[in-house]
Amino acid sequence: MGTSWADHAIAALNRGENITIRPRGNSMTPRIKSGDPITISPIEDKARLKKGDIVLCKVGGRKFCHLISAIEGDGVRFQISNNHGHVNGWVGPGCIYGKVTRVGK
Questions:
Q1: Are 103 and 38 in contact (CB under 8 A)?
Q2: Which of 7, 11, 26, 81 has its CA 20 to 30 A from that of 97?
Q3: Are 19 and 5 in contact (CB under 8 A)?
Q4: pTM for the whole structure
């Protein structure tokens, strides 16, 4: 099994680097269109994440750039969803790797 774009991005984030990628798919339209460049940055304080943030995360073994749609217990658990209301599931802060800080050029 090869290394995915997400694995490369997570490795860069773990080194403290920003990374720019062009994700494919329509799960985040219109906020992110397929092929739009997005910049993902390391998160210094996950307690500052909020509902509506777009994050690179892992839910149920799959990696996504999706929304935080709810937060439980002051950042103990985060609900991850696409931009069309589909809930991927709940994750702890260890499954969130970076935050989208720029969409577009």
A1: yes
A2: 26
A3: no
A4: 0.93
5-103 CATH, one of 3.90.230.10, 3.40.1110.10, 3.30.420.40, 2.10.109.10: 2.10.109.10
Sequence spans of domains, the chain: 5-103
CA-nearest of 13, 97, 95 to 60 is 95
Q: Tell me, letter by letter, the H, E, C secondary structure of the chain.
A: CCCCHHHHHHHHHHCCCCEEECCCCCCCCCCCCCCCCEEEECCCCHHHCCCCCEEEEEECCEEEEEEEEEEECCCCEEEEECCCCCEEEEECHHHEEEEEEEECC
